[in-house]
């Protein structure tokens, strides 16, 4: 058997074993894909979901109503509940996607029952992208399997049909990024399937990025500093309770210099009950401690 024969056989095996578990996820704003992870449960991207319900297209072309069990918008994950019948769920693997690994991407177009199966290799690992709320998501892998519109939320599998990752974001050059199906993802998905959506800590402010902050400070005759400018403090929030004010410039967080909004996201992802902010207020430098419940 030649290499091409082996590749053909592998693609046909993936289509037969994984294809039925891949569904189309549709709504009035667009479409994506999803994959059955357990009886009645479908994993997809959070950015494929609008509202509390969706329509899924099964492998036989029938449409089913789905309800949203839970959404993790910061990690671009969502679990749906729908009648999946006797569809066999995708099999997870503990293998770590490595550079050069051969992969197969499976998606289901919005119209028509057939699944799309494409072949590629992992071109890069430990990549970053931004989720629906603009928070950075780290640890993704990039692969070369070509995918059409509506492929996000579909699985990336190995030649045995085992889940390696979840497609989520198209790169500017056409490659796709996928969230690896590691132990961390399985833990998050298990919680979502139980209806346990993560609660991300919120500071409770509207902020201007460093480039805007420098320009605004210069406009009123203040020295330029890197930091996040507080444009608004919302009532009944940790920021309001701590005494942050409009016009404050946040220059450090837990002694880390603030040169981008990503520093804020990383600080809010921490587990400590408090966040120490170095703040420039006018010409004065003060420290404010924000407490979280």
What's the CATH architecture name of the largest domain? Beta Barrel
**What's the shape?**
elongated
Our count of domains comes out at: 2
Structural class call reads alpha+beta
Integer average pLDDT: 87
Number of helices: 5
Beta strand %: 35-45%
Which residue ranges are poorly predicted, with pLDDT under 50 across at least 5 consecutive positions? Answer: none
CATH topology of the largest domain: Thrombin, subunit H
Strand order of the largest sheet: 1-2-3-6-5-4
The helix content is: 10-25%
Largest sheet geometry: 6 strands, antiparallel, barrel
State the CATH class of the largest domain: Mainly Beta
| End-to-end distance | 62 Å
Query: H/E element string?
Result: HEEEEEEEEEEEEEHEHEHEEHEE
Tally of DSSP β-strands:
19
Rg computed from alpha carbons, rounded to a whole number of angstroms: 22 Å
Question: What would you note in describing this structure?
Answer:
With 293 residues, the chain is α+β, with helices and mostly antiparallel strands. It folds into two domains: 3-193, Thrombin, subunit H (Beta Barrel), CATH 2.40.10; 205-291, Roll (Pdz3 Domain). Helices cover 17% and strands 41% of the residues. It has helices spanning 3-17, 183-193, 210-219, 238-242, 261-268; strands spanning 22-27, 30-38, 41-44, 53-57, 63-72, 77-81, 91-92, 102-107, 116-130, 136-143, 155-157, 162-170, 176-180, 205-208, 228-233, 249-253, 256-257, 274-281, 284-291. Strands 1-2-3-6-5-4 form a six-stranded antiparallel beta barrel. A six-stranded antiparallel β-barrel has the order 8-9-10-13-12-11. The longest helix is centred in the N-terminal third of the chain and has 15 residues, at 3-17. The protein is elongated.
